[in-house]
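Re: folding output
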Amino acid sequence: MAKQTAVKKTKIKGQENFDKVMKRFNRSNTYVKDKYRDDWSDYTKLYYNERVNAGYAGNSEIFMPETFTIVQAVKAHVLGDDPKVKFMPTRADQKADTNVLNQMLDFIWTQDSMGLKAGLAIEDMLTIGNAYLFSFWGPDGYPTTRYVHAQDAFFDIANGLYQDQRFCGYRYITSKKDLEDEMIMDPETGEMVKRYKNLEWVESASAEQQDKTAKAEKEEMFLGAQFKDEDTVEVIVYIDKERMVSIANRSVVIEDIETPFKRDTMTIQSVDDMGNQVPVEIPAIKPFLPYAPIRNYVDGNLFYARGDIQIIADLQERLNDVSTQKFDNLTYILDRMYTLDPAYADRVDEIQNMPGAVFTIPKGALEEITTTPIGNDADKEKEDIKDAMRRATAADELVQGGGQDQGMLTATEVRAQISQSGTRFKLKLRQLEEEGLKIWAGNIFKLIQINVNQEIMVRTIGPEGVEWQNYNPGEYLGEYEPKVMLEAHAAAVSEERKQEAMQFHLMASQQPWVDQQKLFVETAKAVFNKNENEVKGLLVQQQPLMDPATGEMVEPPMPGMPNESGQEPVNVPGMPQGPQPK
């Protein structure tokens, strides 16, 4: 046993980066514990309909789930359908079609269940203000993303801005067997090897010895007990711009490698326009931290943001108090109280508040205590509190679904809905589009650039359904800027373009020189999202006409257009006609 301890001390504890990693982790973890964790716990309880600061202790405990309603409504309105990501070139020499990149990201979003992960992150963003998406290169040859609760992540708290962060990391609970089974490819030999080392020194830690993760805390909070497993291992993953280090149970370094989130300048074989093999120099990618912060109300001097529940927590408890008071008042009115003449106190057990009861006591010995109903004051107070909560979080009636059953909305109506939701809702969209999801998309593309060194086929969705396009890494060099548009924003833009297309159609259809067939095709594509092949399948094919002078077959003139002799245009059955020239 003494020999094993000596080996462990020199082989594990003496590793160069152990002390640095644990020092940075402990400092960040202690900071979150002292400054944020209790508040985050209270906000989570309010979201799960559990009181934390009752002002009125009544006989009943009523919880009005307005906070839950607001968070879910805003979450659905913010995320909606899958976001639209479009990569834009950043240099004049970047001529490749970026549609391949856009379709590749759509495919990764679907394959990696990013809708679910982004939904969890946005829910945390609204509840406690912060969540994080860590991206890695997955074992199946595609990027993969891990959702991390703010309580389980740690950062460089000395810097408030994302771009100034020097390191990041997170912790998770796993088993020793899972660590032993994980394999990676050795870049030098191309063979699959075990990812982690020194596992023989890892001793399983009980749940009591571990600092509580977000999962463990919620189990104790809502289920009354934490799930315990003797085989659990806590793993701390640390990443800076030089190293990636994993530490098991805060004592054993099981991974210490050069950061995989960078690429040196390299040369690969590509293909030119003539199909010839040509060497292409791939520029370097600077080291980056592979996480995207999903944050709500951001202070430029603080790394951790505030959530919506922090703003409405006191209002939620006031709403609960008023609801409880009203319910207690109704209880006192329905369950009447009485006074009994002390001379008949020995017969109190004979008196029951029930229909048809007979009391053998003199009239007047039992009298009802008069109670006054609260009236509409409590209901008005509740509605005022709800209104204040909705206005404070931009979750007004329109965002929560009210007034949206009138059919297809115009662009003006969609813009009015977002405008009436308040500027804070717009800031939520912008915060996600220009920080969290934009950084995530940029990290995913960097991982593709680092790990894909040869041509691959990319699944795309075209007019005929699933199509396959070629991604050539030699054509997409340098940085491409991702532009992200969430559903709420995309809906407004889409409806505005549809209205513009309809107005253009009304104007162009009145002009005799406009090709009405092409106008119909373009309008159907713009307004009804039809592809060109679907629309052309509806058109009546024009048959050649015979020239009476020569007897030859000639192409018919376009509908709405005069022929060469200046005669009236030919009407083709089934085709829309413009006004006839006089």
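--- second protein (sequence, then structure) ---
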Amino acid sequence: PAFSAGLLKPVDAPDDPLSIVRHEVEVTILDGFAVTTVDQTFANPGERDLEAWYTFPLPAHAALSELSLWIDGVETVGEVVERERAKAIYEQEKAAGRDTGLAEKRDYLAFDVKVSPVRAGAETRVRIVYVQPVEIDHNVGRYVYPLEEGRIDEEVQEFWTRKETVAGTFSFRARVRSSYPVDEVRTKGHDHLAHVATGSMNDWDVTIEDHAGGAALDQDIVLYWRLAEDVPARVDLRTFRTGDGDGTYLLTVTPGNDLRPIQQGVDWVVVLDVSGSMGTKIAAAADAVERALGQMRPGDRYRIVTFSQRARDLDRRWRSITPEDLDESVADLHRAKTGGGTNVFAGLQRAFDHVEADRTSAVVLVSDGGANVGPTHHRAFLDLLAKKDVRVFTFVFGQGANAPLMERLADASGGFSMAVSNRDDLAGRLLQAKEKLGREAMHGFEVTIDGVRTHDSAPARIPTLYHGEQYTRLGRYTGPGEATVKVSARISGTPQSWETTVAFPAYDDDAPELERLWAFERTRDMTQAIRDGETDESELRPAIVDLATAYSIVTDYTSMVVVSEPRFEDLGIDRKNANRTATERKARDRRAESPVREVRADAHRPLYGNDARPHSIGGGSGGGAVGPAWIALLAGLALVGGLVRRFGA
């Protein structure tokens, strides 16, 4: 079977005639967040009514905000209720032969959308909308439309096959709207159909269209955009407040301080997943590790650990960055066979055995993260991390990976986590990480806001900030006013701080989506506390459900259900999401017709001074010059001979 987005069909029902006849995607990427709309039509040419079950990988940190079903030709927007009730309503409506739909979150793996009935000889139209945060790293933005699920969910593999082809029109349209000038935009996935155009450096369009039929939903579409060289270090602020109550804010800090290169050598332990789920990915992973090791500094050392059900040390000693050692390691890597379960714990445990207290060490874990052998609970991993003072950097390889675990490993150790699409260049992502690890970091990073009362910020944990990274915070604020924003951190043990003022407005209706983003991050923090074993599920589940139903988001404990308008009233379900959706759509229409909004909040008093620039990939402290890591990151995106080509208008 294919492992991708698409229609799930029972393995014992090969004659099921359901198909996807139209799949259209509209993406708007703004400073701070992106909105993705998936509009598709299912067709049933058969002689009996059928149920459609569509699945697609769960985008990172995405809040599913809309599920719409066209009933008697009229769009009906779904509502969020507790998961068990949503499922019961769906089954009840399905049994009665009434039009209904259900959107559920399958743990960290996927969104599943069920629609019943797709009537015999007819078509059914469904719309899905989700909103997610977007960050800039080394002046480069990245968006993934995930279609490639990976081979993680064994239950789905055993009982279902996927029909991932689109019989009719497939289209993907993305609009990148940045208040800072963008030098170039590139895509990967369906490359031969992609067209990139711009009318200005602040507004870019990406179009991928296939009207011939047969397009497959089996490869991610990855979108990169690079900001111009003169984009400053800064504080950005987006807000939403329309009444006398609390407002919602998204604060983004892009540091411009000079993080100096680290001179001493670093010990690298590369921990590579060779379990069965990595079967289609291992060749790319091995090649990426080879290329990344070849770029290390002469004073660095490395070891390689592989793991499936057990861990294996490929090296009997620390190796130097020499042609002889690299050749031997590369040969071992390419001989690695995949198979068996995924014992992430064993791989990390073996890696930690090699850490030497008097050396700067980094553990680089490359895995699809589907831990299913050995200890799998977060608490066990956190206890393991507590035994060693070592940074863990995780590369979440492929959609459907256990992102919560991989992100938690990095967060708890003071490292960072990077998502890697199967359509990405993993070598480029590893070199991007090398750029970060080769410089000082901002430890104990903290942002305080005084003068305006803020509360309920998310995420709860403030990370160590590495070279090129941004810091983002979502939260609530009470009342307008001018606030003092202070940023502090330790760099090589020396405390440093910076300060500016920003204005929180009394009224701002530009970005109502911020409320959902904030609520979703709050539920993620609470879910993380449950996974970590810090709080019992029974204590936090009611709070998660209350927040999710108030702001209409799909979580582990809530789902979205669609019934006809009269049935919502019969069932006593308030039309909260219908009202919220109407507000968000009006805002999106206004934004589409208006100039790109300015989001910089510290222009009058720059946090890092007038001349400060964020570090670009490979560009040092001097701005956005195209460097080797940027070239590596985009090596698969039509780059030839290491030369960057700019798209024309």
